[in-house]
Amino acid sequence: MTYTSSLLRLLDERGYIHQLTDAEGLDKLAAGQVVPGYIGFDATAPSLHVGSLVQIMLLRRLQQAGHKPVVLMGGGTTRIGDPTGRDESRKMLSDEAIEANIASIRTIFARLLHFGDGPTDAIMVNNHDWLGQLGYIELLQKVGTHFTVNRMLSFDSVRLRLEREQPMTFLEFNYMILQGYDFRHLARSAGVRLQMGGSDQWGNIVNGIELTRRMDGQEVYGLTTPLLTTADGGKMGKTAAGAVWLNDDALPAYDFWQYWRNTDDRDVGKFLRLFTDVPLDEIARLEALGGSEINAAKVVLANEVTRLCRGEAAAAAAEATASATFAGGGLGQDLPALALPAAGLSLVDALVGIGFAASRGEAKRLIAGGGAKVDGEAVTDETAHIVGGSEVRLSAGKKKHGILRPA
RNA sequence: GGACAGGUGGCCGAGUGGUUAAAGGCAGCAGACUGUAAAUCUGCCCGCGCAAGCGUACGCUAGUUCGAAUCUAGCCCUGUCCA
């Protein structure tokens, strides 16, 4: 359908919309007033990773279209764990750890959203503030009466778990009730009218909408984004080294830049639309590039995403390093580095020390397989020694490069 | 509380006394081909050691045995059914 509100038009043309609970209703609302909308985030780690970036960008779009982003930190629900898609119950975190995580995660939102007291300024809330107050009996009375177990059992998050004969605790089973309550609470206390989230959150969002309608007679809306996978079928944001973290201190900017630079050809256009502010006509031009020319589009993607998440300077430095290292065959200053003692260093120790191999055995296998290079030359002798005294370029495979600097 | 089934390497999943550091698959790493892409083919894939080898590992603990992932007992956890 064609939307009249700038919000839905923007979201639609950049590929954020998977499902809407009431497209017409929301379109009308968004065309006529500032719509506060929220997305919930977990506080299980000190940083969010690339898998959450669609949601963060969605809040950014909301603000760009003149509405109000509400970042909901799951300080309360993190103490429970969302059963969705997980085979195992989540570990419980201490209150202090959760608070510290929220503070750390806040820094990434500060880069991508404008916070403040104005009508379209972003705000951050923590559901521990209201869920923590709730008494069990009170919750059962107020909220429990609006849920039937029959229906709860039919939700994918529960059903799949049962079908796979994976355990699900009562604690987790309650997650959806608390999630639904969040929406109703935010609708009442902050005038929130929209909840967004990944497609796996559909059931939770619908629950919240119904609960809000039943308890308060208030009409609220839901929107989900498509499940993002890479073109080769993998999950977004996972690499060998682990998750691609958004926070500066969780992953070096150069590695973050490289993650985007190595995007599959087929994903370039999609990622540019979702993760950058590059205008659509420019994206259309970039994704039409054929053959190796598409690499130029990948550089734009890497630069833009890094700029948004890590800042202008970090993006420029990462690009300069990549350019010097790959195109120039030289050394960029942002590469991982290791001190090289005057007496030199064994190749094995150098590979382990700089982080290209997790153990000495792995380093030896890398060497034996022909993947270790010193100053661009493959070295296949496990006992090779690197002499000290001058700067050395150390590589593992074609993509991982580092510098050994005389100490 | 009872009966039955099950708990194996990052994941899935074989393995029922020695030749098992444990088949196979996925994921991952490297090589070839390329464009820092994909697909494909090849090699690698617990740790330490130059090596012979040593250490650690099949839910936990104690046993049987020359020898246990494999047998026994107790315990913990999960599922299904019964109460």
From TrEMBL:
Residues holding L-tyrosine: 38, 175, 179
Position of the signal peptide: none
UniProt xrefs under CDD domains: S4, TyrRS_core
Top-level taxon: Bacteria
Gene3D superfamilies: HUPs, RNA-binding S4 domain, Tyrosyl-Transfer RNA Synthetase
Catalytic activity: tRNA(Tyr) + L-tyrosine + ATP = L-tyrosyl-tRNA(Tyr) + AMP + diphosphate + H(+)
Subcellular location: Cytoplasm
NCBIfam families associated with the record: tyrS
Entry's EC annotation: 6.1.1.1
Keywords: Aminoacyl-tRNA synthetase, ATP-binding, Cytoplasm, Ligase, Nucleotide-binding, Protein biosynthesis, RNA-binding
Residue span of motif 'HIGH' region: 43-52
Enzyme class: ligase
Family named by the database record: Belongs to the class-I aminoacyl-tRNA synthetase family. TyrS type 1 subfamily.
Residues spanned by motif 'KMSKS' region: 235-239
Pfam family, one: tRNA-synt_1b
GO cellular component, one term: cytosol
Protein name from the UniProt record: Tyrosine--tRNA ligase
InterPro entries the UniProt entry points to: aa-tRNA-synth_Ic (IPR002305), Rossmann-like_a/b/a_fold (IPR014729), S4_RNA-bd_sf (IPR036986), Tyr-tRNA-ligase (IPR002307), Tyr-tRNA-ligase_bac-type (IPR024088), Tyr-tRNA-ligase_bac_1 (IPR024107)
Single GO biological process annotation from the record: tyrosyl-tRNA aminoacylation
Major localization listed first in the record, in broad terms: cytoplasm
GO MF term (any one): tyrosine-tRNA ligase activity
